[in-house]
Amino acid sequence: METPGSQSSLHRANLERVVRAVRLAGSLTQAEIARTTGLSAATVSNIVRELKDGGTVEVTPTSAGGRRARSVSLSGDAGIVVGVDFGHTHLRVAIGNLAHQVLAEESEPMDVDASASEGFDRAEELVGRLIDATGVDRVKVAGVGLGVPGPIDLESGTLGSTSILPGWSGTSPAEELRGRLGVPVHVDNDANLGALGELVWGSGRGVRDLAYIKVASGVGAGLVISGKIYRGPGGTAGEIGHITLDEAGPVCRCGNRGCLETYAAARYVLPLLQSSHGGDLTMETVVRLARDGDPGCRRVIADVGRHIGSGVANLCNLLNPSRVVLGGDLAEAGELVLGPIRESVGRYAIPSAGRRLSVRPGALGGRAEVLGALALALSEMGDSTLLDGFQPAVTPAFT
Question: For 319-368, what is each residue's pLDDT tens digit?
């Protein structure tokens, strides 16, 4: 029997530290593992050799700083995770392995607002189809990350605002999908998952403090502080769309007046162009027309950028992030929207905070949320299960 502080229990703890570091990063060199875990280079070398011999990790040649190195990742057949993203108009599912490789991905149009039960039925069907397409045994599903377009109450796990998804009122999305799939399900709102996706795979890589701004039918923000998603005690942190810009402005769906959302979200912006451009506009179409030189669309996008910049300036003054990543269809407008955002930040943010801020478009486009769901599933799974049945070799005392 292992006792706390014994050589065997210490070695087990070090094995789990290495596995966790590799699992969260996707792949690391041995030097990076040593820096991340605080273990000595010799200890890391011994542990990696053990894990490789046991089939838990794979080691491949790479380079770091111009020198030859070895990249360590979890074995491709160690298990898989599932990402499910419910948008207002789509359902997207992705399957990934523990080495952060996407094995299958598919999106289909869907009116998510209409019916929660229909949404879960479609998600269950699509998840099953994609798992079968990968050829991976379903028993190897380690967990599911689930994204929904609304705030999640952290205590109850239910959607916190019936005005956003009225057809989902009273539902617990994680419980619903867990009952259908029979595996652990972890749920978060789409903005948080967009932030997590960009942090792991996109424009937020290498940054520990950022805000991901998603502009779609609403406006939300995912906040990363010290490398982790910040949700707040009730799970509603990041509702940047409800910062008040004008107390006498339009009435927002939240009941207040002049929220940022009423000046930036698609449902409020598109009607500004309908008299001149017709009633079938989408934000994607507006962005395309603006990039082609349409003056009306350019003006609207610039105005939206300035309003978003006011909200970003507030974030700078409060949280001082080093990077803001803009997601959603609006990000495709590039400098047409990023320039006005920077202009407002320069005007309203504290100079010391604004100077340090980098504003970038998202690198993942519409995939940010589903990849963030994969990252959520990867971050929430336990490391001890990856070592179940692992028989460590006899190791020196310093490991």
Answer: 999 999 999 889 999 999 999 999 999 999 999 999 889 999 999 999 99
| Local confidence band at 398 (pLDDT 50, 70, 90 cut-offs) | very low
Count of alpha carbons within 13 angstroms of residue 386, beta-carbon side: 34
Give 168-177 contacts, CB < 8 A, sequence gap 24+.
168/116, 168/119, 171/116, 173/86, 173/116, 173/120, 173/146, 173/148, 174/146, 176/116, 176/120, 177/84, 177/120, 177/123, 177/124, 177/144, 177/146
Listing DSSP states for 11-73 in one string gives HHHHHHHHHHHHHHHSEEEHHHHHHHH---HHHHHHHHHHHHHTTSEEEEEEEETTEEEEEEE
Q: In what order do the strands lie in the sheet with 102-109?
A: 102-109, 90-97, 80-86, 141-148, 185-189
Model pLDDT for residues 49-91, shown as the tens digit of each residue: 999 988 888 898 888 777 888 899 888 777 899 999 998 888 9
- What is the three-class DSSP state of 79? coil
Closest residue by Cα to residue 383 from 107, 37, 69, 67: 37
Model pTM? 0.85
Question: What is the rounded distance in angstroms from the CA atom of residue 84 to the CA atom of residue 147?
Answer: 6
When pLDDT is cut at 50, 70 and 90, the band that residue 211 belongs to is: very high
**Burial of 16 (C-beta count, 10 Å sphere; 0-12/13-18/19+):** middle
